[in-house]
Amino acid sequence: MDTAVKQLQAEVGRLQHELQTLKVHYHSEDDELITISDYILRRLEQLNVTSIFGVPGDFNMPFLDFVEDHPTIDWIGNCNELNAAYAADGYARVKEHSIGVVVTTFGVGELSAINGIAGAFSEMVPVLHIVGVPSTTQLKNKPMLHHTLGNGRFDVYTKAAEQITIAQATIMAKSQAAAEIDRILTECIVHARPVYLTLPMDLTTEKISAKRLKVELSRVPPPNDQDVESYVLDEIMELVDDAKQDVVVLVDACAIRHDMRQEVNDLLVKTQFPIYATPMGKTAVSEEHERYGGIYIGSITLPSIKEKIEKANLILSIGSLKSDFNTGMFTYHIPATHTIELHSDYTLVRHARFPGIGMKWLLPKLTERLSKYKEGASRIVVPRYKLDVPKESDDNISHAYFWPRVGKFFRKQDVIVSETGTSNFGILDVPMPDGSIFVSQILYGSIGWATASTLGVALAARDKCLGRTILFTGDGSMCVVHLSSLKLTQIFHVAGN
Questions:
Q1: Mean pLDDT over residues 112-126, rounded?
Q2: How far apart are CA 293 and CA 308, in angstroms?
């Protein structure tokens, strides 16, 4: 059901964009022609992309010539394609309202990047993977080219990409190029998932109309059905009344991935409901806010926090992602009868599921209706979230001492990257200053991701005029990546093994 709804919504969105484009074509007298390569770069410029990551190869070099000449987009070369994919992932996580971009060559390059793209798919990170491929003639005739399997199966790499990207475009003629590029970029933005684009060598310099560029790509999901949305709002308000205003907000990963920070902050300000975060939702709201109570990780949550959440009459969960590490190995003790879940493409009210009712449109309306409870909610006590540095009896540096002490090192607007394992588990309970961004790969958990992604994180942080970029990783993870591209980055390295 949900898949069918998504497909229908995507097609409606595509047709609406095409209709707008046709109107521009009809009314515009400007008939500027640009290359397909420049069309891609102009679209990326509109999406505020300033860095493209990757590794040169003979099949992508014609496109890279255009990247090198672009006035506002920099080419960031990497030691290998896996690192490039990780860097694009990190870039997209920090530079919200934009996307990450990685460019590889046909076959050997794209397969090297595939684990990084899979991680972006798993964790809902918008990344465009551009693959330079042989000419259209070679793709049709299938000669025994280098970088192939030698058996004429030129589509095998695209089939692999289909498993880990939400949309794919194989451009075989210039007439389809602009529409296909727009289609997959829209899917990438709206659904916060990676997409895959093949660009044949002989099409990089082919010229097409630039008129479509006058129509901006949609950045928002399809609107909710008004009647169903109204019914859902009434149901939620009834549950809030029944809960006697004892409502706790639990913010999770998808609130970040689907661009809900502002809406969640508005909810916090206008209702004053206590708010907590999951590990993957860390820094979705300011951890210095007086209504912020800490991190909930199921059975391993600090007892005082655990009691506040699990004994609440109603939980309003925003963007939940119930993976093992994010839920304390599936140890949530929150009954479904006490839970409302808002997601990007559906809403769950107790046991009732409402496909197509997404939180981007629903939450602002819900916030306005809940604002009447502000006075009562503000009287609910939320203990100050802090982690004191313990006094040690000897000179040994324990984890119990180290992580709270490191928290004193952080500054406002720092970007903190943490690797899978010791670093992640150690840092979760450390309060972070206002404006900080916490970046980790808790669901996919690919060892080595953090160090390579820090390059993209640092470049995005520089673009956004944020503070320092600080990396926590283990010496084992450091062994599986190359560091030559990290000269721009401030690194705080913890040898955890």
A1: 98
A2: 9
Q: H/E element holding 293?
A: strand 292-295
pLDDT in tens, 139-173: 999 999 999 999 999 999 999 999 999 999 999 99
pLDDT for residue 484 is more than 90:
no
Helices (H), 74-173: 81-94, 108-122, 136-141, 156-162
Q: Is 331 helix (H, G, I), strand (E, B) or coil?
A: coil
Q: What is the separation of C-alpha 459 from the centre of its chain, rounded to a whole number of angstroms?
A: 16
Backbone φ and ψ of 150, nearest 5°: 80, 10
**Is the distance from CB of 442 to CB of 279 less than 8 angstroms?**
yes
Cα dist from 157 to 37, 110, 141, whole Å: 22, 8, 17
Beta-carbon count within 10 A of 460 CB = 26
Neighbouring CB atoms inside 10 A of 223's CB total 12
List, for residues 257-283, the tens digit of each pLDDT value.
999 999 999 999 999 999 999 999 999
What is the chain's Cα-based Rg? 24
Distance separating alpha carbons of residues 302 and 318, to the nearest angstrom: 21
Element (H, E) at 196: strand 195-200
- What values do phi and psi take at 273, rounded to 5? -65, 145
Q: Compute how many other C-beta atoms are within 10 angstroms of the C-beta atom of residue 88.
A: 36
Chain segment 195-245, per-residue pLDDT in tens? 999 999 999 999 999 999 999 999 999 999 999 999 999 999 999 999 998
Backbone angle region of 244, left / alpha / beta, with phi > 0 → left and psi within -120 to 50 → alpha = left
Collapsed DSSP state (helix, strand, coil) of residue 358: coil
Separation CA 331–CA 193 (nearest Å): 28
Contacts of residue 129, Cβ cutoff 8 Å, sequence gap at least 6: 85, 102, 104, 110, 113, 117, 161, 165, 194, 195, 196, 197
How long a stretch of residues is the chain?
497
Token duo for residue 127: 């990344």
pLDDT exceeds cutoff 90 at 17? no
pTM for this prediction: 0.92
Distance CA 251, CA 268 (A): 11
